[in-house]
Amino acid sequence: MVIASALVVGTIVVLNTNPSKHPATDMDPRADSSCDNPKPREECREIEVGGTTYRYAIIEAEVETPNTAIVDFGGPGISALSGKYRIQDFKESLPALRDYNLLVIEEPWVTAEPEQSCTALLSAYYETARSGKGVTESSVRLARSCLSDKGRWGFDPSSYRSAVDQIEEHENISLRGFIGYSFGSQRIAYLEGRDMGWAVLVRPFPVGASGSELLSSRLKQTKRLRSLYSESETGGQPEGLPPNSETSTFDYASAELALAYLNQTQLQSRGPDIFARQNDALAARLSDSLWLRYGVDSISPGYLAYLSEVCVREGTWEISEGSQVANVLNSLHAPCSSIEETGKVSRSGPAEVPDETCIVTSETDPLASESLIKEYIGQNENTSWLDSPEDSHVAQDGTSECLREVGL
C-alpha cells in the first residue's frame, strides 16, 4: 500500500540562530528533575524506580479504561515532554486511539545533572570533531569518563522495562499497544516478551544492525537525498566552499545529515541551499542541531543519551570513505568504539514484534534504507508494510492507515 496522506507533529531539530563558532543560545535544553520546577510543556507525572526519577505523561481516553498504548517519538536525545510533539493534539488527530490512554515516557538524561568534568569533556570532544585532530583520544576520554553509567542518560532494556512496569502498576493501566517512530523500534525491543496486542512502527530504526551497517546506510541515504534536492543536474557535491563563506566544510557536512530531521516542507525549501553550499547561517544552525550544541561550545547531555542507546557491541563504528560527510558521521559515533563492553546494549536482530504489527518505510528515508530495516525488523504473517512517499525522516504519514491495519 502506498500512503497518500501526511501527519507531521513537530520536528526533532531545533534551529539555533548563530553560526557554530559564534555564541548560540544561552538556554541549556535540559529541564529540572521535578515536574514542578519548572513544569515541562506537557502534562507531567513522575515516579521513582530504583533510585531514578522518570517523568511521563498520560493522555487519558475519552472513557475510563485500563487499555493503554505507549507512544515513543524516537530519539535518543530528545525531550518528549518539551511541548514540541503536542501530545494532546497528536491523540486528537488519531480518532482510532479514542479508546486508549497514551503513555509517553521522558528520557532519563532530561533530569540527570552531568558532572562539570563531563560538561567539559563534551565541549572538548566537539572541538576535536570540528578540527578533525585528536578525535580518537578525545572520544576515548569522553566514553570512559561519562558513559560508564549508560542508564543515567538513556534507557537500557532493564531500566525501560522497570519504568514501564512501575508506571503500569502505579497508574492501574494495562499496556495493549505501541506506536514507535524511528528509535521507538528499539524501545519496543526492550519490552520483548510482553504480551501486547498490536504495534505501529513508522520509519523504524533497524534493531540489531551493526555500527558499520548503520553508518553506511545513512551515508548512502544522504547521497540519495542530495540527488533529489541538489540543483545541479548530476546532484553532485560542490567542490569546496563559496569564496566568501564564513562557515566550515564541517558545518555544511553536518547540515547535510541534519536535513533528515526537517519536515518535508522545510526539506524542500532548505535542502537545495545546503547541498549547493549557499546558506552559511542555515548550515551553522543545522550543524548545531545535529551536535546538540548550545551556548558557545556546550553540548547537551542528550548527546550522551544518544551514544548510550545507539552504540552496540556488534561490529565497528567507522566507514572508510573519505568524504567530509563520512568524516562527520565517523566523528559523531567515534565514542561508540570506546565504551566499555558493560556500558553497551547488546542487540541481536531481528526485533520481535506483536502478532498485529504495521510498519511504514520509505525508499528515500535519509537514515536507513528499506532493505536494512526489513532485514532487521521482525515480521509474522499478520505484519503489514506500507510505503511512504515522504523523504523526511520525521514524517509521520501512515500512522492512521497502520492503526486501521492492526484493527483499530
Q: Termini separation (Å)? A: 18 Å
Q: What is the approximate shape?
A: globular
Averaged pLDDT: 85
Order of helices and strands: EEEHEHHHEHEHHHHEEHHEHEH
The structural class is alpha/beta
How many helices in DSSP terms? 13
Low-confidence stretches: 4-33
Helix content: 25-40%
Bin the strand percentage: 5-15%
What spatial order of strands do you see in the largest sheet?
A: 1-2-4-3-5-6-9-10
Strand tally is 10
Sheet of most strands: 8 strands, mixed
What is the C-alpha radius of gyration, as a whole number of Å?
A: 20 Å
Would you summarize the structure shown here?
It is built from 13 helices and ten strands. By secondary structure, the protein is α/β, with parallel strands linked by helices. The two termini are 18 Å apart.
Characteristic key phrases:
408 residues, alpha/beta, eight-stranded mixed beta sheet, two-stranded antiparallel sheet, 10 strands, 35% helix
